[in-house]
Amino acid sequence: MRLAVSRDLDALLQAHPGIEFHRLPADPDLPHQAAWTESSAEFQADEVFELSAASAASAVKLALFDMDSTLIPHECIDEIAREQGVLSQVAEITERAMQGELDFAQSFKARMALLAGTPVQALERIAGRLQLMPGAEALMAELSAQGARTVLVSGGFTYFAQQVAGRLGMDEFYANALEQAEGVLTGQVNTQILDATRKAEILSDVAQSMGLDRMQIMATGDGANDLKMIALADKGVAYHAKPKVQDAAPLAVKQLDLSALVWLLRWPSAL
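and the corresponding structure tokens:
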């Protein structure tokens, strides 16, 4: 079964008269509309989600999200580096880690070392300029309305994760602590790093506590650090992701914003 999400659904349907589409109820608050089909014929839409009949009919009860470049259009570690004047060095390591070229834990420690001496006050300035990813609020509102549990799992920092989760009304968050002493960041990492393995463990722990199976789980991220988490979710989504992540994830949002996933959540009630 395929779900098509399009900014011009009428044009999409008219372009494929031989395919039987079933429209989902229109929503004037969203900049796109959706329809689903059981046809195996190929067609183009802004986003196309392909799922088995059983998967399409399963409602999401647990949704996990990466934070940096997923729920917010920023990499917070790069923003700290900008304040410290070491952005180019840190951003290069960040990009290689997200592409899967470097081990996340090792790259995290290397980047943190470059941030040693950053004034803690800089974190407040960064938090003040953080924006939410387009569509994030609409998606969280839909998840809340459907009674799903929402969890932020970030390889970034608790200082920012707490604020982002709060702004979006999410149920809980997990991230890395920023070690500090005498008003500056130490650059040290003295706790377990929230890497790809830890993200997957959090998903498994929360799902088990709720008595859920994988068909009831959505996990969304953009980088290699999200791959293990995405693999455990029936609705594993690569969001504007690196090529390696898009290739590995069952589903992908490549063109639209996060609100495109609202239709994935509404699909079960339309079947």
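(Above: one complete record from the training split.) The longest strand covers residues 149-157.
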